[in-house]
Amino acid sequence: MNLKHATLSSVLALTACFATFEKADAQLIYGSGSSLAAKAYRSLWDCYALPVTGDGLLPSVCGTGAIVAPGAQGLYASVGSGAGKAAFNAHTAQGTTSTPATVPQFTSTYDTTYPYVAYHFTGSDDVLTATDVSTYNSAQKPALGAELQIPAFSTPVTLVFNGNDGPGGTGSALNINSANPVPIVDYDSSGNPVFDTGSYTKLNLSRQAVCGILAGHITKWNNAILTALNGGTVLGTGQITVVHRQDGSGTTFLTTNGAVSQCAAISGPNSETDSTVVSYRFPFGEIGDGLCATPTPLGANTINWPGQLSSPSSGCSPVTNPTAQGATYTGVTGSGNVKATVNSTNGAVGYLSPDFAQPIDPAGPKVANLGDGVGDAPGAGAYYMAPTAALASISISSANPPTRNALTQPLAWSRQGVVPNPDVGTYPIAGFTWLDFYQCYSSSTLSVLLNYLQFHYTNSTAQTVLGQAGFAPIPGSWFNQLGQLVVTSSSQMKTGPSVTPTACTGNAG
Protein backbone atom coordinates (compact mmCIF):
# COMPACT_ATOMS: atom_id res chain seq x y z
CA MET A 1 0.00 0.00 0.00
CA ASN A 2 1.30 3.41 -0.94
CA LEU A 3 1.01 5.61 2.13
CA LYS A 4 2.71 8.63 0.60
CA HIS A 5 0.56 11.57 -0.37
CA ALA A 6 1.19 15.12 -1.51
CA THR A 7 2.05 17.62 1.19
CA LEU A 8 1.75 21.38 1.10
CA SER A 9 5.53 21.77 1.04
CA SER A 10 5.87 19.54 -2.02
CA VAL A 11 3.23 21.55 -3.84
CA LEU A 12 4.66 24.91 -2.91
CA ALA A 13 8.10 23.78 -4.05
CA LEU A 14 6.70 23.58 -7.57
CA THR A 15 5.50 27.17 -7.65
CA ALA A 16 8.39 28.18 -9.88
CA CYS A 17 6.92 26.27 -12.82
CA PHE A 18 4.11 28.82 -13.09
CA ALA A 19 4.28 31.91 -15.22
CA THR A 20 3.70 35.33 -13.71
CA PHE A 21 0.74 37.42 -14.88
CA GLU A 22 -0.24 40.98 -14.13
CA LYS A 23 -3.24 41.58 -11.92
CA ALA A 24 -6.30 42.15 -14.04
CA ASP A 25 -8.52 45.21 -14.11
CA ALA A 26 -12.07 44.82 -12.81
CA GLN A 27 -13.34 41.58 -14.25
CA LEU A 28 -16.19 39.20 -13.41
CA ILE A 29 -15.61 35.47 -13.81
CA TYR A 30 -18.64 33.18 -14.06
CA GLY A 31 -18.68 29.46 -13.27
CA SER A 32 -21.09 26.80 -12.09
CA GLY A 33 -21.45 23.09 -11.47
CA SER A 34 -20.46 20.78 -8.63
CA SER A 35 -22.28 21.36 -5.36
CA LEU A 36 -19.62 19.20 -3.69
CA ALA A 37 -17.03 21.86 -4.48
CA ALA A 38 -19.30 24.92 -4.13
CA LYS A 39 -18.33 25.91 -0.59
CA ALA A 40 -14.64 25.58 -1.37
CA TYR A 41 -14.86 27.61 -4.58
CA ARG A 42 -16.85 30.36 -2.86
CA SER A 43 -14.20 30.62 -0.16
CA LEU A 44 -11.28 30.36 -2.59
CA TRP A 45 -12.61 33.10 -4.87
CA ASP A 46 -13.44 35.29 -1.87
CA CYS A 47 -9.82 34.94 -0.77
CA TYR A 48 -8.38 35.40 -4.25
CA ALA A 49 -10.43 38.37 -5.43
CA LEU A 50 -13.20 40.71 -4.29
CA PRO A 51 -15.44 38.78 -1.88
CA VAL A 52 -19.16 38.50 -2.55
CA THR A 53 -20.73 41.02 -0.18
CA GLY A 54 -23.68 40.71 2.13
CA ASP A 55 -23.03 37.55 4.12
CA GLY A 56 -20.19 38.55 6.43
CA LEU A 57 -18.78 35.05 6.13
CA LEU A 58 -15.45 35.69 4.46
CA PRO A 59 -13.19 32.87 5.68
CA SER A 60 -11.08 34.17 8.56
CA VAL A 61 -7.98 32.67 6.99
CA CYS A 62 -8.27 35.23 4.16
CA GLY A 63 -7.79 38.26 6.35
CA THR A 64 -9.31 41.19 4.47
CA GLY A 65 -9.80 39.24 1.25
CA ALA A 66 -8.67 40.11 -2.28
CA ILE A 67 -5.14 38.96 -1.52
CA VAL A 68 -4.29 38.50 -5.21
CA ALA A 69 -6.77 40.17 -7.55
CA PRO A 70 -8.61 43.10 -5.95
CA GLY A 71 -9.94 44.11 -9.37
CA ALA A 72 -11.73 40.82 -10.07
CA GLN A 73 -14.61 38.83 -8.63
CA GLY A 74 -15.65 35.22 -9.18
CA LEU A 75 -19.24 33.95 -9.06
CA TYR A 76 -19.97 30.23 -8.84
CA ALA A 77 -23.47 28.73 -8.93
CA SER A 78 -24.10 25.41 -7.20
CA VAL A 79 -26.23 23.68 -9.85
CA GLY A 80 -24.70 20.19 -9.81
CA SER A 81 -22.05 18.62 -12.03
CA GLY A 82 -24.54 17.56 -14.71
CA ALA A 83 -25.95 21.05 -15.19
CA GLY A 84 -22.42 22.43 -15.02
CA LYS A 85 -21.24 20.22 -17.88
CA ALA A 86 -24.33 21.18 -19.89
CA ALA A 87 -23.55 24.86 -19.28
CA PHE A 88 -19.98 24.35 -20.45
CA ASN A 89 -21.12 22.70 -23.69
CA ALA A 90 -23.70 25.43 -24.29
CA HIS A 91 -21.32 28.24 -23.25
CA THR A 92 -24.16 29.67 -21.19
CA ALA A 93 -25.68 29.02 -17.77
CA GLN A 94 -27.85 25.90 -17.41
CA GLY A 95 -30.02 24.58 -14.60
CA THR A 96 -31.18 26.23 -11.41
CA THR A 97 -29.38 26.83 -8.16
CA SER A 98 -29.87 24.33 -5.36
CA THR A 99 -32.58 24.91 -2.75
CA PRO A 100 -32.10 25.39 0.11
CA ALA A 101 -29.02 27.48 -0.58
CA THR A 102 -26.80 26.16 2.18
CA VAL A 103 -23.41 27.24 0.87
CA PRO A 104 -22.33 29.82 3.50
CA GLN A 105 -21.26 32.48 1.03
CA PHE A 106 -24.26 31.83 -1.24
CA THR A 107 -26.12 35.10 -0.67
CA SER A 108 -29.27 36.63 -2.08
CA THR A 109 -27.11 38.94 -4.17
CA TYR A 110 -25.16 35.99 -5.46
CA ASP A 111 -28.33 33.97 -6.07
CA THR A 112 -30.23 36.56 -8.08
CA THR A 113 -27.41 36.99 -10.59
CA TYR A 114 -28.04 33.49 -11.96
CA PRO A 115 -28.32 32.62 -14.83
CA TYR A 116 -25.17 34.52 -15.65
CA VAL A 117 -24.64 36.89 -18.56
CA ALA A 118 -21.40 35.07 -19.50
CA TYR A 119 -19.77 31.73 -18.78
CA HIS A 120 -16.11 30.85 -18.21
CA PHE A 121 -15.58 27.54 -16.38
CA THR A 122 -17.30 24.53 -14.87
CA GLY A 123 -16.67 22.55 -11.70
CA SER A 124 -17.49 18.84 -11.94
CA ASP A 125 -16.79 15.74 -9.86
CA ASP A 126 -18.00 13.71 -12.83
CA VAL A 127 -15.33 12.87 -15.40
CA LEU A 128 -15.82 13.76 -19.03
CA THR A 129 -17.15 11.04 -21.32
CA ALA A 130 -16.67 10.53 -25.05
CA THR A 131 -20.23 11.81 -25.52
CA ASP A 132 -19.44 14.98 -23.54
CA VAL A 133 -16.38 15.70 -25.67
CA SER A 134 -18.18 14.94 -28.93
CA THR A 135 -21.04 17.27 -27.96
CA TYR A 136 -18.61 20.03 -27.04
CA ASN A 137 -16.55 19.62 -30.22
CA SER A 138 -19.66 19.96 -32.36
CA ALA A 139 -21.03 22.96 -30.48
CA GLN A 140 -18.08 25.05 -29.32
CA LYS A 141 -14.67 23.89 -30.52
CA PRO A 142 -14.66 25.97 -33.71
CA ALA A 143 -15.03 29.18 -31.67
CA LEU A 144 -13.57 28.34 -28.27
CA GLY A 145 -10.85 25.83 -29.01
CA ALA A 146 -10.38 22.49 -27.27
CA GLU A 147 -11.98 21.55 -23.96
CA LEU A 148 -9.53 21.28 -21.08
CA GLN A 149 -10.32 19.29 -17.92
CA ILE A 150 -7.91 19.41 -14.98
CA PRO A 151 -8.10 18.07 -11.41
CA ALA A 152 -8.82 20.76 -8.81
CA PHE A 153 -8.44 18.84 -5.53
CA SER A 154 -8.98 15.43 -3.93
CA THR A 155 -12.06 14.60 -1.89
CA PRO A 156 -13.60 11.75 0.05
CA VAL A 157 -17.34 11.14 -0.18
CA THR A 158 -18.91 10.63 3.23
CA LEU A 159 -21.68 8.14 3.97
CA VAL A 160 -23.87 10.14 6.35
CA PHE A 161 -26.66 9.01 8.66
CA ASN A 162 -29.36 10.58 10.78
CA GLY A 163 -28.45 8.94 14.11
CA ASN A 164 -32.05 8.61 15.31
CA ASP A 165 -34.25 5.53 15.10
CA GLY A 166 -38.00 5.11 14.75
CA PRO A 167 -40.71 6.66 12.60
CA GLY A 168 -41.38 10.39 12.84
CA GLY A 169 -40.78 12.73 15.75
CA THR A 170 -37.38 12.94 17.32
CA GLY A 171 -36.96 9.17 17.65
CA SER A 172 -34.39 7.61 19.91
CA ALA A 173 -30.66 7.61 19.30
CA LEU A 174 -29.18 4.62 17.51
CA ASN A 175 -27.45 2.40 20.06
CA ILE A 176 -23.93 2.55 18.64
CA ASN A 177 -21.66 0.16 20.53
CA SER A 178 -19.10 -0.99 17.98
CA ALA A 179 -16.51 -3.54 19.04
CA ASN A 180 -13.91 -1.52 17.11
CA PRO A 181 -15.04 2.08 17.55
CA VAL A 182 -11.91 4.06 16.76
CA PRO A 183 -11.43 4.82 13.05
CA ILE A 184 -8.19 5.55 11.22
CA VAL A 185 -7.80 9.15 10.08
CA ASP A 186 -4.24 9.16 8.66
CA TYR A 187 -0.86 7.41 8.68
CA ASP A 188 2.29 8.77 10.29
CA SER A 189 5.65 9.13 8.55
CA SER A 190 6.50 5.51 9.39
CA GLY A 191 3.28 4.19 7.87
CA ASN A 192 1.58 3.48 11.19
CA PRO A 193 -2.15 4.21 11.43
CA VAL A 194 -3.25 7.34 13.28
CA PHE A 195 -6.52 6.79 15.12
CA ASP A 196 -9.31 9.26 15.77
CA THR A 197 -9.39 11.02 19.10
CA GLY A 198 -13.13 11.70 19.18
CA SER A 199 -14.09 13.89 16.21
CA TYR A 200 -15.85 11.11 14.34
CA THR A 201 -18.72 8.77 15.19
CA LYS A 202 -18.31 5.13 16.19
CA LEU A 203 -20.66 3.74 13.55
CA ASN A 204 -18.64 1.31 11.43
CA LEU A 205 -19.96 -0.07 8.16
CA SER A 206 -18.24 -2.90 6.30
CA ARG A 207 -18.20 -3.10 2.54
CA GLN A 208 -20.93 -5.73 2.74
CA ALA A 209 -23.06 -3.36 4.83
CA VAL A 210 -22.59 -0.41 2.46
CA CYS A 211 -23.34 -2.50 -0.64
CA GLY A 212 -26.38 -4.10 1.02
CA ILE A 213 -27.81 -0.73 2.03
CA LEU A 214 -27.33 0.91 -1.39
CA ALA A 215 -28.77 -2.13 -3.23
CA GLY A 216 -31.85 -2.33 -1.00
CA HIS A 217 -31.13 -5.62 0.81
CA ILE A 218 -30.27 -4.10 4.21
CA THR A 219 -33.39 -2.07 5.01
CA LYS A 220 -33.63 -2.02 8.82
CA TRP A 221 -31.24 -0.92 11.54
CA ASN A 222 -31.71 -4.29 13.28
CA ASN A 223 -30.29 -6.19 10.30
CA ALA A 224 -28.05 -9.02 11.51
CA ILE A 225 -25.06 -7.74 9.50
CA LEU A 226 -25.27 -4.33 11.21
CA THR A 227 -25.73 -5.94 14.63
CA ALA A 228 -22.57 -8.02 14.18
CA LEU A 229 -20.60 -4.90 13.19
CA ASN A 230 -21.94 -3.16 16.31
CA GLY A 231 -20.44 -5.64 18.76
CA GLY A 232 -23.60 -7.73 18.86
CA THR A 233 -25.75 -4.82 20.00
CA VAL A 234 -28.85 -4.01 17.94
CA LEU A 235 -28.53 -0.47 16.61
CA GLY A 236 -32.27 0.15 16.37
CA THR A 237 -35.45 -1.21 14.85
CA GLY A 238 -36.46 1.50 12.38
CA GLN A 239 -36.38 1.85 8.61
CA ILE A 240 -33.23 2.77 6.66
CA THR A 241 -34.07 5.41 4.04
CA VAL A 242 -31.46 5.92 1.31
CA VAL A 243 -31.35 9.64 0.41
CA HIS A 244 -29.79 10.15 -3.03
CA ARG A 245 -29.33 12.86 -5.61
CA GLN A 246 -31.82 12.84 -8.46
CA ASP A 247 -30.10 15.59 -10.43
CA GLY A 248 -26.87 15.24 -12.39
CA SER A 249 -24.39 14.92 -9.54
CA GLY A 250 -20.65 14.38 -9.42
CA THR A 251 -21.04 13.18 -5.84
CA THR A 252 -23.32 10.47 -7.23
CA PHE A 253 -20.66 9.64 -9.81
CA LEU A 254 -17.95 9.22 -7.16
CA THR A 255 -20.26 7.16 -4.94
CA THR A 256 -21.50 4.85 -7.67
CA ASN A 257 -18.04 4.67 -9.21
CA GLY A 258 -16.94 3.02 -5.99
CA ALA A 259 -20.07 0.91 -5.59
CA VAL A 260 -20.04 -0.55 -9.11
CA SER A 261 -16.52 -1.90 -8.63
CA GLN A 262 -16.45 -2.63 -4.91
CA CYS A 263 -19.85 -4.34 -4.68
CA ALA A 264 -19.47 -6.57 -7.74
CA ALA A 265 -18.36 -9.63 -5.74
CA ILE A 266 -20.27 -8.93 -2.51
CA SER A 267 -23.27 -11.03 -1.45
CA GLY A 268 -25.52 -11.59 1.56
CA PRO A 269 -29.07 -12.37 2.69
CA ASN A 270 -31.78 -11.04 0.41
CA SER A 271 -33.52 -9.18 3.26
CA GLU A 272 -34.14 -9.22 6.98
CA THR A 273 -36.86 -11.87 6.46
CA ASP A 274 -35.35 -13.83 3.56
CA SER A 275 -32.06 -15.64 4.17
CA THR A 276 -31.54 -16.53 0.51
CA VAL A 277 -28.01 -15.41 -0.42
CA VAL A 278 -28.03 -12.94 -3.33
CA SER A 279 -25.57 -10.60 -4.99
CA TYR A 280 -25.16 -7.16 -3.42
CA ARG A 281 -23.76 -5.66 -6.63
CA PHE A 282 -24.97 -2.14 -7.43
CA PRO A 283 -28.09 -2.91 -9.49
CA PHE A 284 -29.23 0.45 -10.84
CA GLY A 285 -28.13 1.59 -14.27
CA GLU A 286 -27.39 5.05 -15.59
CA ILE A 287 -30.41 6.93 -16.85
CA GLY A 288 -30.16 6.84 -20.62
CA ASP A 289 -28.27 3.54 -20.91
CA GLY A 290 -31.40 1.46 -21.33
CA LEU A 291 -31.94 0.99 -17.60
CA CYS A 292 -30.60 -2.54 -17.89
CA ALA A 293 -29.67 -4.55 -14.84
CA THR A 294 -26.01 -4.58 -15.86
CA PRO A 295 -24.29 -1.75 -14.00
CA THR A 296 -22.41 0.99 -15.76
CA PRO A 297 -18.63 0.46 -15.99
CA LEU A 298 -17.60 3.41 -13.82
CA GLY A 299 -20.77 4.77 -12.28
CA ALA A 300 -22.65 7.82 -13.51
CA ASN A 301 -23.88 11.22 -12.43
CA THR A 302 -27.57 10.36 -12.90
CA ILE A 303 -28.75 6.94 -11.75
CA ASN A 304 -32.03 5.10 -12.18
CA TRP A 305 -32.65 4.75 -8.46
CA PRO A 306 -35.95 3.03 -7.61
CA GLY A 307 -38.81 5.34 -8.54
CA GLN A 308 -36.58 7.63 -10.61
CA LEU A 309 -38.35 6.61 -13.83
CA SER A 310 -41.69 4.85 -14.27
CA SER A 311 -40.55 2.00 -16.49
CA PRO A 312 -37.44 0.62 -18.20
CA SER A 313 -36.69 1.19 -21.85
CA SER A 314 -37.81 -1.39 -24.40
CA GLY A 315 -35.44 -4.27 -25.05
CA CYS A 316 -34.00 -4.32 -21.53
CA SER A 317 -34.91 -6.39 -18.51
CA PRO A 318 -36.17 -4.21 -15.65
CA VAL A 319 -34.15 -4.04 -12.45
CA THR A 320 -35.84 -5.93 -9.64
CA ASN A 321 -37.42 -3.21 -7.51
CA PRO A 322 -36.00 -3.49 -3.98
CA THR A 323 -38.85 -1.41 -2.57
CA ALA A 324 -41.00 -4.55 -2.89
CA GLN A 325 -38.94 -6.09 -0.07
CA GLY A 326 -39.08 -3.04 2.15
CA ALA A 327 -36.31 -0.75 0.89
CA THR A 328 -36.98 3.00 0.88
CA TYR A 329 -35.33 5.60 -1.38
CA THR A 330 -35.79 9.38 -1.46
CA GLY A 331 -34.43 11.54 -4.28
CA VAL A 332 -33.53 15.21 -3.83
CA THR A 333 -31.68 17.92 -5.74
CA GLY A 334 -28.39 19.39 -4.54
CA SER A 335 -26.07 18.65 -1.64
CA GLY A 336 -27.92 21.10 0.59
CA ASN A 337 -31.10 19.09 0.22
CA VAL A 338 -29.32 15.80 0.93
CA LYS A 339 -28.03 17.34 4.16
CA ALA A 340 -31.47 18.70 5.11
CA THR A 341 -33.33 15.49 4.25
CA VAL A 342 -30.95 13.21 6.13
CA ASN A 343 -31.10 15.53 9.13
CA SER A 344 -34.91 15.48 9.14
CA THR A 345 -35.49 11.77 8.38
CA ASN A 346 -35.01 9.32 11.22
CA GLY A 347 -32.87 6.37 10.17
CA ALA A 348 -31.79 7.98 6.89
CA VAL A 349 -28.44 7.47 5.18
CA GLY A 350 -27.02 9.48 2.27
CA TYR A 351 -23.80 10.64 0.65
CA LEU A 352 -22.15 14.07 0.81
CA SER A 353 -18.83 15.84 0.47
CA PRO A 354 -17.09 16.32 3.84
CA ASP A 355 -17.87 20.05 4.09
CA PHE A 356 -21.62 19.33 4.30
CA ALA A 357 -21.20 16.76 7.09
CA GLN A 358 -19.83 16.57 10.64
CA PRO A 359 -17.28 17.33 11.96
CA ILE A 360 -16.49 19.92 9.22
CA ASP A 361 -20.06 21.24 9.29
CA PRO A 362 -21.42 21.06 12.87
CA ALA A 363 -24.97 21.40 11.50
CA GLY A 364 -24.52 18.54 9.05
CA PRO A 365 -25.37 14.87 9.55
CA LYS A 366 -23.00 12.41 11.20
CA VAL A 367 -20.66 10.24 9.14
CA ALA A 368 -20.01 6.51 9.24
CA ASN A 369 -16.56 4.94 9.12
CA LEU A 370 -16.10 2.58 6.17
CA GLY A 371 -14.13 -0.63 5.97
CA ASP A 372 -11.51 -1.01 3.25
CA GLY A 373 -13.04 -4.18 1.87
CA VAL A 374 -10.69 -6.83 3.26
CA GLY A 375 -10.05 -6.26 6.93
CA ASP A 376 -13.50 -4.90 7.64
CA ALA A 377 -15.38 -7.94 8.91
CA PRO A 378 -16.41 -8.00 12.59
CA GLY A 379 -13.52 -8.86 14.88
CA ALA A 380 -10.69 -7.46 16.95
CA GLY A 381 -8.44 -6.90 13.93
CA ALA A 382 -10.93 -4.93 11.86
CA TYR A 383 -9.99 -1.37 10.89
CA TYR A 384 -12.36 1.32 9.66
CA MET A 385 -11.58 4.59 7.91
CA ALA A 386 -12.95 8.07 8.56
CA PRO A 387 -13.55 10.29 5.49
CA THR A 388 -10.56 12.57 6.00
CA ALA A 389 -8.58 14.66 3.54
CA ALA A 390 -5.42 12.70 4.38
CA LEU A 391 -7.00 9.35 3.54
CA ALA A 392 -8.60 10.74 0.37
CA SER A 393 -5.17 11.89 -0.74
CA ILE A 394 -3.79 8.38 -0.19
CA SER A 395 -6.77 6.85 -2.01
CA ILE A 396 -6.27 8.95 -5.14
CA SER A 397 -2.46 8.71 -5.13
CA SER A 398 -2.54 5.49 -7.16
CA ALA A 399 -4.11 7.35 -10.11
CA ASN A 400 -1.47 8.20 -12.69
CA PRO A 401 -1.50 11.47 -14.64
CA PRO A 402 -1.60 11.33 -18.44
CA THR A 403 1.63 11.31 -20.36
CA ARG A 404 3.10 14.45 -21.88
CA ASN A 405 1.74 13.70 -25.36
CA ALA A 406 -1.81 13.35 -23.99
CA LEU A 407 -1.94 16.63 -22.09
CA THR A 408 -4.52 18.25 -24.36
CA GLN A 409 -6.76 15.17 -24.51
CA PRO A 410 -9.41 15.57 -21.78
CA LEU A 411 -10.48 11.94 -21.95
CA ALA A 412 -6.94 10.86 -21.08
CA TRP A 413 -7.17 12.91 -17.89
CA SER A 414 -10.62 11.48 -17.15
CA ARG A 415 -9.66 7.86 -17.68
CA GLN A 416 -6.56 8.19 -15.51
CA GLY A 417 -8.19 10.22 -12.75
CA VAL A 418 -10.48 7.57 -11.27
CA VAL A 419 -9.78 5.01 -8.55
CA PRO A 420 -12.90 2.81 -8.26
CA ASN A 421 -11.33 0.52 -5.67
CA PRO A 422 -8.44 2.09 -3.71
CA ASP A 423 -5.72 0.05 -2.01
CA VAL A 424 -6.50 -1.82 1.17
CA GLY A 425 -5.89 0.38 4.18
CA THR A 426 -7.43 3.65 3.05
CA TYR A 427 -10.83 5.28 2.64
CA PRO A 428 -12.75 3.53 -0.16
CA ILE A 429 -14.79 6.34 -1.78
CA ALA A 430 -12.62 9.19 -3.05
CA GLY A 431 -11.65 11.00 -6.22
CA PHE A 432 -10.89 14.31 -7.87
CA THR A 433 -13.20 17.19 -8.43
CA TRP A 434 -12.35 18.78 -11.78
CA LEU A 435 -12.21 22.17 -13.44
CA ASP A 436 -13.27 22.44 -17.09
CA PHE A 437 -11.90 25.32 -19.14
CA TYR A 438 -12.12 26.50 -22.72
CA GLN A 439 -8.90 26.85 -24.65
CA CYS A 440 -9.65 30.39 -25.80
CA TYR A 441 -10.37 33.49 -23.70
CA SER A 442 -10.21 37.23 -23.97
CA SER A 443 -6.97 38.64 -22.60
CA SER A 444 -8.57 40.11 -19.48
CA THR A 445 -10.42 36.88 -18.61
CA LEU A 446 -7.35 34.76 -19.29
CA SER A 447 -5.18 36.84 -16.97
CA VAL A 448 -7.64 36.45 -14.08
CA LEU A 449 -8.07 32.71 -14.64
CA LEU A 450 -4.35 31.98 -14.85
CA ASN A 451 -3.68 34.06 -11.76
CA TYR A 452 -6.46 32.20 -9.97
CA LEU A 453 -4.96 28.82 -10.90
CA GLN A 454 -1.59 29.91 -9.56
CA PHE A 455 -3.31 30.92 -6.31
CA HIS A 456 -5.40 27.74 -6.21
CA TYR A 457 -2.49 25.34 -6.55
CA THR A 458 0.40 27.11 -4.84
CA ASN A 459 -0.83 29.65 -2.30
CA SER A 460 -0.71 28.54 1.34
CA THR A 461 -4.01 30.31 2.06
CA ALA A 462 -5.73 28.29 -0.66
CA GLN A 463 -4.31 25.07 0.77
CA THR A 464 -5.62 26.06 4.20
CA VAL A 465 -9.10 26.73 2.77
CA LEU A 466 -9.15 23.28 1.17
CA GLY A 467 -7.91 21.58 4.34
CA GLN A 468 -10.55 23.26 6.50
CA ALA A 469 -13.24 21.99 4.11
CA GLY A 470 -11.99 18.39 4.31
CA PHE A 471 -10.29 18.38 0.89
CA ALA A 472 -6.67 17.69 -0.12
CA PRO A 473 -4.35 19.06 -2.83
CA ILE A 474 -3.83 16.97 -5.95
CA PRO A 475 -0.80 14.61 -5.84
CA GLY A 476 2.55 16.11 -6.83
CA SER A 477 2.81 13.95 -9.95
CA TRP A 478 -0.42 15.43 -11.28
CA PHE A 479 0.69 18.93 -10.37
CA ASN A 480 3.90 18.51 -12.41
CA GLN A 481 1.91 17.61 -15.52
CA LEU A 482 -0.72 20.24 -14.84
CA GLY A 483 1.84 23.03 -14.95
CA GLN A 484 2.68 22.05 -18.52
CA LEU A 485 -0.97 22.08 -19.54
CA VAL A 486 -2.32 25.30 -18.08
CA VAL A 487 -0.02 27.85 -16.52
CA THR A 488 3.49 27.57 -17.91
CA SER A 489 4.85 29.42 -20.90
CA SER A 490 3.53 26.51 -22.99
CA SER A 491 -0.01 26.99 -21.66
CA GLN A 492 -2.82 25.56 -23.75
CA MET A 493 -5.12 28.35 -22.54
CA LYS A 494 -4.63 31.21 -24.95
CA THR A 495 -5.92 34.62 -25.92
CA GLY A 496 -8.44 34.64 -28.74
CA PRO A 497 -7.14 34.25 -32.27
CA SER A 498 -3.52 33.56 -31.26
CA VAL A 499 -4.10 29.83 -30.79
CA THR A 500 -4.44 28.55 -34.35
CA PRO A 501 -5.85 29.96 -37.58
CA THR A 502 -8.99 27.87 -37.07
CA ALA A 503 -9.49 28.26 -33.32
CA CYS A 504 -10.56 31.27 -31.28
CA THR A 505 -11.31 33.39 -34.33
CA GLY A 506 -14.85 33.98 -33.16
CA ASN A 507 -16.29 34.23 -29.69
CA ALA A 508 -13.48 33.80 -27.18
CA GLY A 509 -14.55 32.57 -23.74
Compact summary:
With about 500 residues, this protein is of the alpha/beta class. The chain is built from 15 helices and 21 strands. A hairpin with a 6-residue loop joins strand 6 and strand 7 (about 170-175).
What key phrases describe this protein's structure?
D-Maltodextrin-Binding Protein, domain 2, 15 helices, 2 domains, 509 residues, disordered N terminus, single chain, five-stranded mixed β-sheet, 27% helix, alpha/beta
Detailed description of the structure:
With 509 residues, the protein is α/β, with parallel strands linked by helices. It folds into two domains: 8-155 and 396-498, Periplasmic binding protein-like II (D-Maltodextrin-Binding Protein, domain 2); 158-386, Periplasmic binding protein-like II (D-Maltodextrin-Binding Protein, domain 2, 3-Layer(aba) Sandwich). Helix content is 27%, strand content 18%. It starts with 7 loop residues before the first helix and ends in a 14-residue tail after the last strand.
